[in-house]
Amino acid sequence: MADRSPTSNPASPAGGRLRLHAPLLDWLRLALSQYVTNGLSVAVGLVLIVLGVYALDGLSAASAASVGVLVASLPDVPSPKRRKFMQMLPAPALGAPLFLAVQLVQQQPLELGLVLVPGTFLAFMGMAWGKRGGPISFSLMFSMLFSMATPPGHPDQALMRTGWFLAGGALYLVYAVLTAHLLNTRYRVQLLADCLLGLASLLRTQARRFDPQTDSPAAQQALLADVLRQQAALADLLQSTRDVVLESPTKPHRQRLAGMLLAVLEARDHLLACELDLDALSRHDDGQWLPALEQSLLALAASLEALATSLLLGRTPQPVADLRPALARLQAAGAAASEQPGTGALLGSLTDRIGHINDETVKMAALARGDVRPELANVRSSWQLFVSPTLWSWKPLLGQLSWYAPTLRHALRAALAIGVGYTVSLHLPWASHKYWILITIAVVLRANLAQTVERRNARVGGTLLGCVLVMLILSAHPEPMALLLFVALGTAISHAFAIKRYLFTAIAATVSGMLQAHLLMGGISPGFALAERLADTLLGAVLAWALSYVLPSWERRQIPGLVQRTLAAQARHARLALALGQARQPDLDWRLARREAYDSLSALVQATGRVLAEPRSVRPPLEPLEALQARSYQLLAQLTAIKSLLMLRRGQLDMDEAQPALALAAQRIDHALISPGLPAAGAAPPAAGPAQAVDSALMPAPEQLPDNLTPALLRRLGLACDMAGELRLAAARVQTPTGPLHD
User: Fold this and answer.
1) pLDDT at 121
2) What pLDDT was estimated at residue 584?
3) Distance of alpha carbon 94 from its chain centroid, rounded?
4) pLDDT score of 687
5) Which end of the chain, C or N, has fewer beta carbons within 10 A?
6) What is the pLDDT of residues 161-218, one digit of tens each?
């Protein structure tokens, strides 16, 4: 019997495994992540600034300054050092006038409403700047809403509070810039470790596709959907990591991390290419080889997880066990023992791809240890091209001023919701804390229905638990300084888990927000009845959810633009990937095109996930949309396989024959994806299932034709052209109107 095990101890990862159960190990990694580090940094800044102001001018000044710190801290996330101050400045600079305006009209209900409604519209228009604009928007909202929590006073008191608000915000800006420089090295490591864990999770999901027990079409389709979602999440995380890790890679340790990030990108590509032959091999395999391939992927996932843990703990990782010899033995055993023609070739193709993932994993560990030098010629000189823009520009805002623009409609919807919530709060028997309803509306109401529903549920549950904690804290009658520490702790937790675990954010935000309001009231007995707080939260959540149907931005309107972006990105990526066959062709443009191909497809996958929460009457056709995503990833996989042949096995290609074929394929794909007009909507749709199988007679394994892989290249070029045609057909069916859309 052939040795089918890829390694004698496939679960032995780099650096050794911590002797903890998997859930505890996951929590340890989360505790060591950039999310928690960033949250603790915010809490330390809050405590230092508030204690300093408290020593200068007492509790009232410290409470107002803490609001300024809170407002300034929302945009403080792991990000590049350059222009950090300018990235955060809009929050306190624009929040201060709103804070003052609310202070001045606090006792005049009509005037206060006239400040809140247009202020909300302006705040939510900040969403036009995407990820950078979101925290700014919430900063402006909290500037107004926490200003409502202060006791009414004279204009002189309002000016004094606003002055301390600005002082707190300004001091935090300086603190944030300093800590961004101090923590930059740590953030680089943590973000890269998060990418390694994301890739490991993707490897584990892909390994499940090799499990013979999941070979039914329904199970494979569900796993493919999981792969698409994880690929989209990883693409989003990779861009955040590029912004920090690729910034000024001038020092040796920065270059090692940048080299590891490039290896992650290459490993992701090779994993994607595994889709090409998996379906064909699963039809021929009788349970002999797929389990061994599954164990190989699981072993690599364990190695990546251990490498990430070593980075987070600051340890030097051990070298990764090289699976290449075991994979070569598996490949040879498969070729010798296979009774069906072509099975050996398919097995050889898959083992070769897993071998490339192994090579990149081994390379990552070697780079982390400093055993090899990274190859960063293009990235070192052109890193600015790979990171997100940091300059503020009016262009994103101007692009959202049309009636159907999602940001404009969301801003109008939010302003209406705040207006309705404020009006309702004026007529409630417990109207003394009307800002509670408004805070709930602000944090629950999102740009799309799916996220609104998710936030609604988490907010209600988190508020219930948070209220219980607040009642326990206040029942002990703590000193004001102790309350400030609780506010700081709650701020840290809510800041840290805003993306990863929003329920924790809701709990911590309830604690810090209610204690913050208690301090702003001067420590007066707040009467924070549990029933009252819950009633406000439930009312605010219901209003936010109900008004999310007003001026909706259904995904059906956004998807055609996302589809066009995906097609254009796929076409450009194909054109540049096939141009890699030219002698001395630089790969910088191709790397940028690959990033856009993944990012555009990630946006489409995420939009498709949000569609499922929308009413059926406004959903786009899901079957062709899923087919489009599947074919897009399969085209990327096919191009990855072609790129591997061009760059790793160039010596086995007849380039005189390959060059014209590459140029013709690029022309055909370009014509299929971006030519004017769409195919007939009545054409047969492509299935959204696994990738098209490769003809084993025309796709020999590398060991079978060591001197000429040109036929394999030509076959892949033909399949890539066919997939481009199927992708265009799926796009045509997605964009064909299926009925009126009333909004």
Assistant:
1) 97
2) 53
3) 28
4) 43
5) N
6) 999 999 999 999 999 999 999 999 999 999 999 999 999 999 998 888 877 676 667 7
Query: Which of 600, 551, 548 lies closest to 572 in space, CA to CA?
Result: 600
Nearest-Å Rg of the Cα atoms of the chain is: 28
The rounded distance, in Å, linking the Cα atoms of 372 and 341 is 41
pLDDT band at 581 (very low <50, low <70, confident <90, very high): low
Integer Cα distance of 228 and 209 in angstroms: 13
298 to 128, 134, 205, 210, 368: CA distances (angstroms): 41, 37, 9, 11, 21
Q: How far apart are CA 453 and CA 537, in angstroms?
A: 14
Query: Which two tokens mark 2?
Result: 């052939």
Instruction: Tell me the three-class secondary structure of 263-325, residue by residue.
Output: HHHHHHHHHHHCHHHHHHHHHHCCCCCHHHHHHHHHHHHHHHHHHHHHHHHCCCCCCCCCCHH
pTM for this entry? 0.85
Instruction: Using the predicted structure, report yes or no on whether residue 525 has a pLDDT greater than 50.
Output: no
Determine contact, residues 160/171, Cβ cutoff 8 Å: no
Residue 270 CA, chain-centre distance (Å), reads 21
Among 397, 670, 413, which residue's Cα sits nearest to residue 546? 413
- Contact present, 228 and 633 (Cβ < 8 Å): yes
Q: Please, which residues have CB within 8 angstroms of residue 339's CB and are 6 or more apart in sequence?
A: none
CA gap 144, 153 in Å, rounded: 16
Per-residue pLDDT reduced to its tens digit, 325-372: 888 887 777 666 655 555 666 777 788 888 889 999 999 999 999 888
Structure tokens at 197: 């864990």
Question: Distance between CA atoms of 693 and 420, rounded to whole angstroms?
Answer: 57
